[in-house]
Design goal:
Blueprint (H helix, E strand, L loop, with lengths): L4 E5 L3 H18 L3 E5 L3 H4 L17 H8 L5 E5 L11 E5 L8 E5 L13 E4 L2 H10 L4 E4 L4 H9 L5 E5 H7 L7 E2 L14 E6 L3 H5 L7 H17 L7 E8 L2 E9 L6 E8 L4 H26 L9
Parallel strand pairs: 1-2, 1-3, 6-7, 6-8
Antiparallel strand pairs: 3-10, 4-10, 5-8, 5-9, 11-12, 12-13
Helix pairs in contact: 8-9
């Protein structure tokens, strides 16, 4: 493998932790030098507006990095998989998905309270419509408010008293060594995570065969199968990062189990289901669960979401 390799990354503390993890793993496994280049994305620049108001596109956090790949200014990129659209730009490939960190969501409250302990009307911040609607299904009396910014920025806003509690991905807290801030970790039955949450994605040019072959040290087969099922579910339903659907897959005893949900915008209805099968059938399992939820009522929910303008027409 050629050396040095230029690795593109966003510039937040968490993104740089992820980039350095990939850099260290590659340098040890392949005896190459890896240099990190920070690239600021549109999503990093727009921090005071809810994602749904700026289109809710996953590409907000990847577009500039992918352009740098295609223009050969960098050799590979690391993303949070949940930020990566299911359809990659022509000429790019998903090279590896490392072993996943804990995919669950966590509540952090100012006074150590769990969700059930928060008083009625407590202000709970989240960047995600998916989280917000699932929160409302758990506690309809809470004031769920938008929260943007990197993980450290969100924690600072909580500590400043702007919110009584916030909900964030547990994976980020663990990677940054801040897991002790969590006052409650939601089970996947309480709150299904975002597609790909907790997993990293290594992206490269599709024609860079030598580099793609050299990424084997980063691959985790169980994580790749689980996230393939989740992304197939997402692809069939046509959702972006601001459509309230969620899915989480696990491989246990050579069986892949995928749970998924689609929630209505008023949080009054949730269509949920589970499918399972062999890990090699991950793509089929994801599509099968999506078709099942569509038949069970998700089609009507998604049509209402489309009418509300949170998703491009004809995407499912």
């Amino acid at each position: 493998m050629r050396s040095p390799l230029i690795l593109g990354s966003r510039g937040s503390r968490l993104a740089l932790w992820q980039a350095n993890f990939v850099k260290t793993t590659l340098e040890r496994a392949a005896s190459v030098e890896v240099r990190i280049e920070i690239i600021r994305t549109t999503g990093d620049k727009i921090t005071d507006v809810p994602l749904a108001q700026v289109g809710g596109s996953k590409a907000l956090f990847t577009k500039e990095i992918e352009e740098a790949l295609l223009e050969r200014r960098i050799d590979l990129a690391v993303h949070s998989l949940k930020d990566l659209p299911v359809e990659l730009p022509a000429g790019l490939a998903l090279g590896a998905i490392p072993a996943r960190e804990d995919a669950r969501d966590a509540l952090i409250s100012r006074h150590g309270q769990t969700l059930s302990d928060l008083p009625a009307g407590a202000r709970v911040g989240t960047s995600s419509l998916r989280r917000g609607l699932q929160l409302r299904r758990l506690r309809s009396d809470l004031a769920v408010e938008p929260l943007r910014g990197n993980l450290d920025t969100r924690l600072r806003k909580l500590d400043e008293g702007r919110y009584d509690a916030i909900v964030v991905a547990l994976a980020g807290l663990k990677r940054m060594g801040w897991a002790d801030r969590a006052t409650q970790v939601f089970s996947v039955e309480e709150m299904l995570p975002a597609i790909g949450q907790g997993a990293l994605a290594i992206e490269a040019r599709a024609d860079d065969k030598e580099l793609l072959a050299g990424l084997d040290s980063l691959r985790d087969p169980d994580t790749e199968a689980a996230t393939q099922a989740e992304r197939a579910f997402l692809r069939r339903l046509g959702g972006g990062c601001q459509v309230p659907l969620a899915a989480h897959a696990r491989v246990k005893q050579e069986q892949l189990e995928l749970a998924g949900v689609v929630v209505s915008l008023d949080a009054a209805r949730a269509v949920r289901g589970v499918e399972s099968g062999a890990p090699a059938e991950a793509e089929t399992i994801g599509r099968r669960l999506a078709e099942r939820l569509l038949k069970d009522g998700a089609r009507d929910i998604l049509a209402a979401i489309e009418q509300a303008g949170l998703r491009p027409p004809g995407s499912a």
